[in-house]
Amino acid sequence: MKNYFATDCINIRKYFDLTQNELSEQTGIPRVTIARIETNAYKPSSPSLEGIYSFAYEHGLNFNEDHADVMDDDKGNRILLFHGSKNEIKTNISLDYSREINDFGKGFYAGETLQQAATFISSYRSNYVYAFYLRKDNLNIYELSADIEWMLAISYFRGRIKEYENHPIIQKIIEKIKKSDVIIAPIADNSMYETLNEFAAKEITDEQCRHSIRANYLGKQYVFLNNKALSNIEGITCLYIPQIQKQKYKTIKFEQTEASKNKIEMAKLNYRRMGKYIDELLK
Q: How far apart are CA 85 and CA 67, in angstroms?
């Protein structure tokens, strides 16, 4: 796994015209530690990374977004994706640590932007975001939009429609997903889960649910369902998000959540009494 910690440290000093001793004085990191980081002789600890990246961010440099821009320029025919992890990934990416109760079951989940991944981890202790490329060749990819299939699939995997899980419509959707290597679908946040729960509980119709979701579109997620899909990942890069930057993303997440609530409530009102309830769809 590639990281930019050594070159970032060097570039921070160059940008601000600092010696190792001067950067040490600014960050409180021992000079010998800085020297070892710059020569890749030492894996930086979290306090060292925090000191270096928070200093840069506070003084107007954002290496994470810079690296994301560079990777986007270099993607070619590949897809650039980001994964925000609650824990540091210390070995190869694996499905072993994934839970069954996710949007599409057990898998490795990623988003299209740095902001998506960074807002996801903003409330957790982890400071790590992983950027990588996906090669689409030789993969069976199933893409869903914010429609009834997406609504039923997430409700199924989240365990919200157990009474309908053997229905032919549900089984057809699940069969498509299980035959796939990668799922591409809209991201769901807590506001969307609440709306889907209302749909599953027969409190709102499919039209109310669908339009609520579309009004709250947050981008796409890519779900890697098996080892074949994981083998098409390349160029994994670790990015460190300092606490001061995480606070910015935390604020963004809060604002998104508040905006989502308003959009969803408006959509429910506008499409009230339109469409069908889940028990009418799955007779």
A: 18
